[in-house]
Design a protein that fits this description.
It is a single chain. This protein is an alpha/beta fold. It is built from 14 helices and 22 strands. Strands 14-15-16-13-12-18-19 form a seven-stranded mixed beta sheet, sandwiched between helices. A six-stranded mixed beta sheet has the order 9-8-7-10-11-21, sandwiched between helices. Helix 8 links the parallel strand 10 and strand 11.
């Protein structure tokens, strides 16, 4: 069941603790306080690291089959609690309930995948040598820190935790302060269902992430950091390594382009673009942020897209029929308004939306959160702020192109390289686009390119290393070569 409003959100060395202070957790749709969470400091973080170091020898010695069995048990427990977990997520994140439930169920699949990857993380014997055999061994990197975001607070946490535990690494989770409840409850479920030894999985909630993470980064015993969040913070983690190398996985910002060729199935493309843009109110690092439509297709495509956008229903995520929740806070709303204002000032036209959503007549009273109408802009050009900055909100700018190469060059003209989308039917044309796009994830006629079996991560300033797929567990393993002279 979901955690009751309390401050016992720190799991340290097998015990739930309240911490030295507490902070409020707010429903972003109503701005009402829904619970309190423990506000940890550096002392609690270092106590967790001490416990992780103590637990490491035993967990790394645990057989991969036993670790896999524990993770599968945790996946089953998450599925059994999917309803309450989704409700908990919606209460602090704001996303519609059906999206929250989908994320929870996807998290369970990620644990299943991690369990099997742990069983397959083997080494090899090298070809014969006159002096004797050679071996390549895989060994867990050591105690890890998982820093997780508020926009996908379940899936990002579970993906990191599952891979770390499967590899044999104890892991300390630091959920985002906006969404500590779902993170805490997932840690509770995984820890109990998997019957993990004390110190193998721990959780630190805090409103002082710089102090807490800084204390851990200053300790050489922390051997791995996995971070999902802004590019600015991610780059600061790289700079913080100083004179001591530490394995660091980064999944940072995105500014995802989508290219709609004139031979695409336009109704299907409109549905896919709407889904890939407006899920979680556009607050996704893989949300479509730049839509390039071939000029000859725009007249037929735009009404199809606007019909989809008009069908979106803003409201409280827990209310039936809601398909668009609030932004997480008013800072995000201010950025959305700044981008729209700048685009219109520079000549863009508002084809749909374009202002804060009024909750008058909504099914639930008291919706005072940071709501914005689902918005489509046309006549956008590359000089506008929205063309170079990630909006992270429900605003979709449309650009036109004539030449395929021009569209792909403009799609690549970004410091980010996380996800890109291509819509078309000519196989050769689509494949050339896939090869040309400098992005870690390329979706072809698909609005949802995230799957446990596919590696997740970006190029350029969108990150380094990968999560998921057969590549995901590599981030938690060191490679050791052994030569034997007979």
């Amino acid at each position: 069941m979901p955690a009751e409003p309390s401050t016992a959100t720190l799991l340290i060395d097998g015990e739930w603790r309240t911490g030295p202070a507490a902070f409020e957790v707010v429903d972003p749709a109503t701005l009402e306080v829904v619970a309190h969470a423990a506000d940890a400091g550096p002392d609690e973080a270092l106590a967790a690291l001490e416990a992780a170091c103590a637990a490491f020898p035993g967990w790394r010695a645990t057989g991969s089959e036993d670790r896999a069995t524990a993770l599968r048990a945790a996946a089953a427990a998450i599925r059994a609690a999917a309803g309450p977990l989704a409700e908990l997520m919606t209460s602090e994140n704001g996303k519609p309930l059906h999206e929250a439930r989908g994320e929870v169920m996807g998290s369970a699949r990620m644990l299943d995948w991690a369990a099997e990857e742990g069983r397959r993380a083997d080494g090899r014997v090298t070809p014969g040598n006159p002096n004797g055999p050679g071996l390549v061994l895989r060994t867990p990197v050591g105690p890890a820190l998982a820093i997780t975001p508020w926009n996908f607070p379940a899936s990002m946490l579970v993906r990191k935790v599952g891979l770390a535990l499967a590899a044999g690494c104890p892991v300390i989770v630091k959920p985002a302060e906006q969404t500590p409840l779902i993170g805490t409850e997932l840690v509770r479920i995984i820890n109990e269902a998997a019957a993990l030894p004390a110190g193998v999985l721990q959780s630190i909630t805090t409103t002082r992430p710089a102090e807490v993470v800084g204390a851990l980064l200053d300790d050489p015993r922390l051997r791995k950091v996995s971070f999902t969040g802004s590019t600015e913070v991610g780059l600061s983690l790289i700079r913080s390594t100083g004179s001591r190398l530490r394995r660091t996985s980064l999944e940072m910002g995105g500014h995802s382009p989508a290219v709609v060729f004139d031979d695409a199935d336009l109704p299907a493309a409109a549905a896919a673009v709407s889904a890939a843009k407006f899920a979680n109110a556009g607050q996704s690092c893989i949300a479509i942020n730049r839509l390039y439509v071939q000029r000859g297709a725009l007249e037929a495509f735009l009404p199809l897209l606007l019909e989809r956008v008009a069908a979106l229903r803003p409201g409280h995520g827990a209310d039936e029929g809601t398909t668009l929740g609030p932004l997480i806070d008013f800072a995000g709303l201010d950025k959305v308004e700044r981008h729209v204002t700048d685009a219109v000032k520079r000549g863009a036209a508002v084809a749909a939306g374009g202002r804060r959503w009024s909750a008058e007549g909504a099914a639930r009273p008291g919706l005072t959160g940071a709501f914005y109408e689902p918005t489509v802009l046309t006549g956008v050009d590359d000089s506008m702020l929205i063309s170079s900055e990630e909006t992270f909100g429900p605003v979709l700018p449309i650009y036109t192109f004539d030449d395929d190469e021009d569209a792909l060059n403009r799609a690549n003209a970004s410091e980010y390289g996380l996800a890109a989308y291509v819509f078309g039917s000519a196989l050769g044309r689509v494949w050339r686009a896939v090869e040309a796009l400098d992005f870690g994830i390329v979706a072809v006629n698909d609005p949802a390119p995230v799957r446990p079996e596919l590696p997740f991560g970006g190029m350029k300033n969108s990150g380094q290393e990968r999560e998921g797929g057969s590549e995901g567990i590599d981030a938690y393993l060191e490679t050791k070569s052994v030569s034997v002279k007979l």
